[in-house]
Design a protein that fits this description.
Length: 163
């Protein structure tokens, strides 16, 4: 009569699966949550914890990270064949290329518009600098004219005495 389940410690489970003890403990906890395995605590704190699991979980071939199961070349229910998939991909690729061209044209137009705006901004900045210089010159001229006007408004006796 063949056994249908095994009772293993975390260390034994780790050795059988070729993983670390902590990885075996975490695997057991996940399997307990899914209802496939059962954790059996020891009666004493120093007793090892055992994991009850079906024998088939250790004998079934596992697919590792880099391996993938082989795909059949036949048609699958609800799926199209490889030729239709490649036709669909070609149409999708053409649509994507058309969209890229459209967005590139739009980007170029907006770039030109922003370039024109930048040129206008540079011209306005130069104009502001020119007008600021002109304003400073006119302010100095106003101060000189006010001084001349003040001297011209003095009475004859102020001019005579130099006041």
């Amino acid at each position: 009569m063949a056994e249908t389940s095994l009772n293993l410690t975390y260390r034994d489970l780790a050795e059988r699966l070729g993983i670390s003890t902590d990885a075996a403990r975490m695997k057991a906890r996940r399997a307990v949550k899914s209802g496939r395995w059962r954790i059996i605590p020891g009666n004493h704190p120093n007793d090892p914890v055992r994991v009850e699991l079906p024998v088939t979980d250790l004998t079934e071939p596992k697919v590792t990270g880099g391996e993938r199961p082989a795909r059949s070349t036949g048609e699958h229910k609800g799926r199209t064949n490889a030729r239709t998939d490649s036709d669909t991909l070609a149409v999708t690729l053409q649509a994507a290329q058309a969209r890229i061209a459209e967005l590139t044209d739009q980007l170029t137009a907006e770039k030109d518009q922003h370039r024109e705006t930048a040129v206008e901004l540079a011209k306005a900045t130069v104009r502001i600098d020119t007008l600021s210089g002109e304003l400073a010159r006119l302010d100095a001229s106003v101060v000189d004219l006010e001084h001349d006007l003040e001297r011209a408004r003095r009475s004859w006796w102020q001019k005579l005495t130099g006041q």
